[in-house]
Write a structure and sequence with these properties.
Blueprint (H helix, E strand, L loop, with lengths): L34 H9 L2 H11 L8
Amino acid sequence: MTKPAFSCVGYEPTKAGLNPNCGNCDNYDGKCKVRKILDELYEISPQFNAFDRMMRGNKGVRID
């Protein structure tokens, strides 16, 4: 079986066997109830650090 594209640590399925997405999660009622926790986890991740370094190092383009 292939790895699903969606991965969320706050995902709790409403029923067993459903595809993992926000619509099938108990923590979602039109708005994610665990979004703050997910954002905090993302901010300490290596992916965020790499993106943050790239954005801070961007000096723009100089046209002479």
